[in-house]
Amino acid sequence: GQQLNQSPQSMFIQEGEDVSMNCTSSSIFNTWLWYKQDPGEGPVLLIALYKAGELTSNGRLTAQFGITRKDSFLNISASIPSDVGIYFCAGRLTGANSKLTFGKGITLSVRP
Amino acid sequence: GAVVSQHPSRVICKSGTSVKIECRSLDFQATTMFWYRQFPKKSLMLMATSNEGSKATYEQGVEKDKFLINHASLTLSTLTVTSAHPEDSSFYICSARGGRAEGYTFGSGTRLTVV
Question: Which residues in chain A are contacts of B91 at CB distance < 8 A?
Answer without folding.
Answer: 40
